[in-house]
Amino acid sequence: MITFLIILLIVACVALGLFVLVQNPKGGGLATGGGTSNMFGVQRTGDVLEKGSWVLLAVIVVLTLSITTIAKTNGGAAATGNTEIQDRLNKMPSPSPLGGGATNSAAPAKPATADTTKK
């Protein structure tokens, strides 16, 4: 389910990018031939592109929030993999706080006395 929503989100993002790129920066959009021509009953293509951009933006917001909600409630397909990863992490031994990994049974060597005289 979550994979399907992610695919829909990617499609919506690409469509929004195309809608924005097709629009004329001055608001003309695809209506480049006279601006106000009503050929075949089409009225101001820029309005259609602008409304389409807003609809796609709303779709992207809804998809993003739904993906986040599904992922947090562990209801998605990605959440099932988290339990396997968590099990592996729980089985691993914890690292030594001092590092090194090897344990020495011998007593540590005494540090050499440092020369405290100034030169």
From TrEMBL:
Region described as Disordered: 75-119
Entry keyword Transmembrane helix: yes
Chain intervals with Low complexity compositional bias: 106-119
InterPro entries per record: SecG
Listed transmembrane segments: 54-71
Database matches in Pfam families: SecG (PF03840)
Top-level division of the source organism's lineage: Bacteria
This protein's record includes keyword Transmembrane: yes
Its job: Involved in protein export. Participates in an early event of protein translocation.
Name this protein carries in UniProt: Protein-export membrane protein SecG
Native source species: Pedobacter rhodius
Lineage: Bacteria, Pseudomonadati, Bacteroidota, Sphingobacteriia, Sphingobacteriales
